[in-house]
C-alpha cells in the first residue's frame, strides 16, 4: 500500500480554479517543459487524475506544478495539469499560478514585478502588480497566436451544420460565432453547450488536422469557443469555452482570448495596440491587447497579452492512497 501526499494551494482566476501543487510533484526528465510534459503524461498521469477529478477535484479543476527553469535567465517553468490532460499553455492557470507563487514566496523573480515563465508551449513573459503582499493583477504576454483555418464546416447533432474558424492561442480553438443554427451562447444552458461541444470536437478532429508549425506534440483542436452577446457595455466580446469533457471555463480563458484576438486580427477587426476586453460565462473579464506581429513559419501571428486577477482561497494537503478505490479519480 502506498500513500502519496501533495501540498496544494487552491485559488481561482476570475472564477476558474487553479490548484498549484507546491510539494509532492514528481521529478521529470527533459530539456524543456514540452519534453517534461511528455514524461509526465507517460509516467505520472495518475497524479493529474487523482488531483483533478472527483472526489478530490471536479469537472472544471485545473492546476499546475512548478519546476526550475531550463534557461538560467528565466525564473520558473510550469506544467499545467487539468481534467483535460496537460495543456501546452493555460492563461487562467498562469494568472493563478503566478499570483500564488508570488504571494506564497514560492518563486523569487530576478526582477521584482517580472516573471519569465517557461510553459510547454514556449516562453511567457509576465508582469504583475502588488499591493503589499497581495498580487492585484497579472499580465502575461503569450506565445505567438494565429488563425489556422477559416470557414470550416461540421455537423453538430442537435444544432445542425455549423461554420467555424480554428485559431491558435496556446491551444487550438474552434470558434463558433452566432449564425443560422446557433443564435449565441446566451440562449442555451451550459449543460447543453457542453454536450454539443463534446460531439462537435470529436467530429472536427475526425474531419480536420491541426498541427502546430513548431511543436508537433500540439496536434488537435482541443477547445470549443462559443460566442455571444456581451453582458456589460465595456466588454468587446463574450465567450463560453469548453475544455476537458465536462467543463465551461468560468474565466474568460487566456488562450481562448489569444486565439480570438488572432482571429479578429487576421480578419482586420483588430490592429496592433488595440485592446480586447473578453467576458466569461459568469461575466468576469480579461483585458487583452495585440502587442506585436511576428512571422511564425509563414503564418502571420500576433503576440497577445492578457491581464486578469486571481485570489487564493485555501491550503489543501491531499492524499492519494492506493488503498482508496477512487485513488485516481472518476467522472460521471
Ligand atoms: O485560460 O487558457 C486558459 C484556459 C484553458 C482551459 C481553461 N482555461
What does this structure look like?
With 332 residues, the protein is α+β, with helices and mostly antiparallel strands. 19% of the residues lie in helices and 41% in strands. The chain has 5 helices and 17 strands. The model has no long low-confidence stretch (mean pLDDT 97). It binds pyrrole-2-carboxylate (PYC). Residues 62, 87, 90-92, 243, 249, 251, 253-255 line the site of pyrrole-2-carboxylate. Pyrrole-2-carboxylate binds next to helix 3 and helix 5. Belongs to the proline racemase family.
Concise account of the structure shown:
Pfam families: Pro_racemase (PF05544). 19% of the residues lie in helices and 41% in strands. The protein is an alpha+beta fold.
Radius of gyration: 19 Å
Sketch the topology as an H/E string, one letter per element: EEHHEEHEEEEEEHEEEHEEEE
Total helical elements: 5
Helix percentage range: 10-25%
List of distinct ligands in this structure = pyrrole-2-carboxylate
Summarize the biggest pleated sheet: 17 strands, mixed
Strand content: 35-45%
Large-scale geometry = globular
Strands, count: 17
Distance N terminus to C terminus? 27 Å
User: Which runs of at least 5 residues are low in confidence (pLDDT < 50)?
Assistant: none
Structural class: alpha+beta
Mean pLDDT: 97
Oligomer: single chain
Task: Please outline the helices and strands.
Blueprint: E1 3-13, E2 16-23, H1 33-43, H2 45-52, E3 62-67, E4 76-82, H3 91-103, E5 114-119, E6 122-131, E7 134-141, E8 146-156, E9 160-168, E10 172-176, H4 190-207, E11 221-228, E12 237-243, E13 247-248, H5 254-266, E14 275-279, E15 285-296, E16 299-308, E17 310-321
Parallel strand pairs: 2-3, 4-5, 10-11, 12-14
Antiparallel strand pairs: 1-2, 1-17, 3-4, 5-6, 6-7, 7-16, 8-9, 9-10, 11-12, 12-13, 14-15, 15-16
The protein binds pyrrole-2-carboxylate (PYC).
Amino acid at each position: 500500500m502506498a500513500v502519496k501526499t501533495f501540498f496544494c494551494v487552491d485559488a481561482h482566476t476570475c472564477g476558474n480554479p487553479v490548484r498549484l501543487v507546491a510539494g509532492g510533484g514528481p521529478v521529470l526528465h527533459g530539456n524543456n517543459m514540452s519534453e517534461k510534459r511528455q514524461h509526465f503524461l507517460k509516467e505520472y498521469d495518475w497524479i493529474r487524475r487523482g488531483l483533478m477529478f472527483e472526489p478530490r477535484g471536479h469537472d472544471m479543476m485545473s492546476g499546475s506544478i512548478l519546476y526550475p527553469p531550463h534557461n538560467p535567465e528565466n525564473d520558473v517553468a510550469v506544467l499545467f495539469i487539468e481534467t483535460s490532460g496537460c495543456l501546452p499553455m493555460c492563461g487562467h492557470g498562469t494568472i493563478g499560478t503566478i499570483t500564488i507563487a508570488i504571494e506564497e514566496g514560492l518563486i523569487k523573480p530576478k526582477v521584482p514585478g517580472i516573471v519569465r515563465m517557461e510553459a510547454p508551449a514556449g516562453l511567457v513573459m509576465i508582469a504583475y502588480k502588488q499591493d503589499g503582499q497581495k498580487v492585484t493583477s497579472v499580465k502575461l504576454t503569450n506565445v505567438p497566436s494565429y488563425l489556422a483555418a477559416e470557414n470550416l464546416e461540421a455537423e453538430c447533432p442537435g444544432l445542425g451544420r455549423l461554420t467555424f474558424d480554428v485559431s491558435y492561442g496556446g491551444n487550438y480553438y474552434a470558434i463558433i460565432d452566432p449564425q443560422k443554427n446557433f443564435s449565441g451562447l446566451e440562449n442555451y444552458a451550459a449543460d447543453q453547450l457542453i454536450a454539443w461541444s463534446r460531439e462537435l470536437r470529436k467530429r472536427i478532429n475526425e474531419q480536420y488536422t491541426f498541427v502546430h508549425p513548431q511543436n508537433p506534440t500540439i496536434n488537435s483542436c482541443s477547445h470549443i469557443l462559443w460566442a455571444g452577446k456581451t453582458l456589460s457595455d465595456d466588454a468587446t466580446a463574450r465567450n463560453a469555452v469548453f475544455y476537458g469533457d465536462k467543463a465551461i471555463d468560468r474565466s474568460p480563458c487566456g488562450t481562448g482570448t489569444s486565439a480570438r484576438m488572432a482571429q479578429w486580427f487576421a480578419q482586420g477587426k483588430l490592429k496592433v495596440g488595440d485592446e480586447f476586453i473578453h467576458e466569461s460565462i459568469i461575466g468576469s473579464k480579461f483585458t487583452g491587447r495585440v502587442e506585436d506581429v511576428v512571422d511564425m513559419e509563414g503564418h502571420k501571428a500576433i503576440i497577445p497579452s492578457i491581464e486578469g486577477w486571481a485570489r487564493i482561497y485555501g491550503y489543501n494537503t491531499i492524499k492519494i492512497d492506493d488503498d482508496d478505490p477512487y485513488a485516481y479519480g472518476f467522472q460521471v
